[in-house]
Design brief:
With 232 residues, the protein is mainly alpha-helical. The chain has twelve helices and no strands.
């Protein structure tokens, strides 16, 4: 094993921890936002549906890196101009690039996955909703107990791909000096003059994480298959 791996193992492990935290926090918060966006897109209130459509179009139509720069350099610089904000308890968070990355990723997940969930909700057979209504469920109960769980089962393969894409998007954290997995590799490259080896190591870690994500979704999909067959 090369000496630089042992020497920088702590830095690489810390970068991996940052990458995983970005993935988990952004996935959880982004999923909640995505459900809300999907419901807004399907709302009978035209103003709400249009606002959601503008949001998804704007976020999906602009590169994520540009959004990160706007949030970090734009909002970050704006916040720094207000002494009231700099003196508040929020300032340690508002000056940390980590939270700007989280914010950008959550908005991105909300836009992309929101459209995916919208399609899944539309794909749920109307007969299942009619059956839920026949059992006396309200519209909200039918949504939470029947329509949304059914859509999630249908969308598991797509959600697996979106999660992998989110994992790869976390690498953009290194562009604003957040030491994630790729950021740690860049530090190693700069200090050891090893150009390719750190990148190959990091690529291997990302590949392992991708296999793990796909395996988790595959297990969830297999467990949901009998239910889908019985319902279908």
């Amino acid at each position: 094993m090369p000496d630089w791996i042992m020497y920088y193992a702590g830095l690489i492990a810390k970068g991996l921890q940052t990458t995983l935290s970005l993935l988990v926090v952004s996935a959880v918060l982004g999923f909640v936002l995505a459900v809300l966006v999907a419901l807004a897109r399907l709302s009978r209130r035209k103003w709400l549906a249009r606002c959601a459509m503008v949001y998804t179009s704007a976020l999906r139509g602009t590169p994520l890196l540009i959004q990160i720069y706007i949030f970090y350099y734009g909002l970050g610089s704006l916040f720094a101009q207000f002494p009231l904000i700099r003196g508040s308890f929020l300032w340690p968070f508002l000056r940390d690039g980590y939270w700007y990355i989280v914010f950008a990723l959550v908005l991105s997940v909300g836009a992309y996955v929101g459209e995916v969930i919208r399609g899944g909700l539309l794909a749920v057979p109307k007969g299942e909703m009619e059956a839920a209504s026949a059992f006396g469920m309200t519209s909200r109960q039918a949504l939470l107990r029947v329509r949304l769980p059914r859509a999630m089962r249908l969308l598991l393969p797509t959600l697996a791909g979106e999660t992998v894409m989110l994992l790869k998007s976390t690498a953009l954290a290194s562009t604003i000096a957040v030491v994630d997995l790729l950021g740690a590799a860049n530090v190693v490259r700069a200090q050891t003059l090893q150009i390719y080896q750190p990148l190959l190591l990091v690529a291997g870690v990302y590949l392992c994480l991708t296999f793990l994500i796909e395996a988790v979704y595959a297990i969830a999909e297999r467990r949901g298959t009998p239910l889908r067959r019985s319902v279908g």
